Amino acid sequence: MTAVQEPLLVADRVVVDYPVKGWRQQPIRVLRGVSLDIGPGETVGLVGESGSGKTTLGRAILGLAPVTGGEIRFQDRDISRLGKRERRALSKDIQVVFQDPYSSLNPAKTVEDILTEPLLVTGTARAEAGRRVRSLLDAVHLPVDAGQRLPREFSGGQRQRIAIARALTRDPKLIVCDEPVSALDLSTQSRVLDLFIEIQQRTGVAYLFITHDLSVVRHVSHRVAVMYRGELVETGDATRVTTTPEHAYTRRLLLAAPVPHPRRQAERRAERHRFLAAQAAAGPAGS
Ligand SMILES: Nc1ncnc2c1ncn2[C@@H]1O[C@H](COP(=O)(O)OP(=O)(O)OP(=O)(O)O)[C@@H](O)[C@H]1O
User: Fold this and answer.
1) How many structural domains comprise the chain?
2) To test ligand 1's pocket by mutation, which of 16, 25, 28 has the most ligand atoms within 8 angstroms of CB?
3) Would the N or C end of the chain have less CB density within 10 A of its end CB?
């Protein structure tokens, strides 16, 4: 008998309505009863056209969008309507990496300050926080002296590595990744995607991976969920959904952004691995 693993996070018929200013204005319904679960150590890719509600689902999980119907459970606890203090406590377990590594890091703080802050405010001793920062920099393949520098001294890819390190500071169980590689050039994208995979294999963290790019989602996801106008129209195994979609909308998405042939993808993966192995042999990554 195989053990059934409990989901880490369950979105159960989640509705999000945004209030609209003005007399007699109806709120805008952005999510219309979305149900999705994410298992421990799993990556669920969330795709869909612009405005379909992907970011809003991520924000609802993070407590940043108002859940007006249904609920979101994390480790079997309803987290849809938490107070500030409970939400702050939950940030240990649920973290986020945003699209733009330029605006998501405080430009006035050194990388070490950015990474130690979440540890110091929760009572970690400074010496222990310093050790943790060194191990985090190592985990995202940045040199140890990166800690003394400011975000502006790094490339886009390196800044996204810093943002990933910050998300990892307190060993989260889930990271909401909202278009985390969209602002990066193609070769940097693939290195950062491989970093996400490597970190997951080492730590067992789960990802909700929001993207409009089907080749990205196929590369990193175990399962894919397709959103259309505030509803999930299809959820399933990543290869299945991106090669033989069942829903007409998913087929349209695929036609709009053709996914390379599986053999070409395998070649690309092999290329990436050769590249990463060569980089590892040469020293810390440059992006
Ligand atoms: N704070 C808000 N108030 C009112 N409407 C909002 C708010 N945030 C988002 N929306 C609306 O909700 C809808 C879904 O937006 P959302 O950002 O979740 O979509 P998305 O699929 O992530 O799109 P994109 O890929 O362009 O980021 C859009 O029509 C957007 O205008």
Assistant:
1) 1
2) 28
3) N
CB proximity list for 64: less than 8 A, separation 6 or greater = none
Does the model's pTM come out above 0.90? Answer: no
Tell which residue, 256, 237, 97, has the closest CA to residue 179: 97
pLDDT at 103: 78
Choose between 215 and 275: higher pLDDT: 215
Q: How far is the CA of 198 from the centre of ligand 1 (A)?
A: 31
Q: Comparing C-alpha atoms, which of 233, 237, 229 is closest to residue 250?
A: 233
Task: For residue 132, give its domain range.
Answer: 101-171
In a domain, 136, yes or no: yes
Q: What number of other Cβ atoms are within 10 A of residue 136's Cβ?
A: 23
Residue 84 lies in a domain: no
ipTM above 0.90, yes or no: yes
Q: Best mutation site among 20, 32, 56, 100 for ligand 1, i.e. most ligand atoms within 8 A of its Cβ?
A: 56
Atom 26, ligand 1: residue with shortest CA distance: 50
Report yes or no on 107 lying in a domain: yes
Is beta strand 206-210 parallel, antiparallel or unpaired with respect to 67-74? unpaired
Q: What is the tens place of the pLDDT at every residue in 41-82?
A: 999 999 999 999 999 999 999 999 999 999 999 999 999 999
Domain contains 10: no
Pocket of ligand 1 (CB under 6 A): 18, 28, 30, 48, 50-56, 212
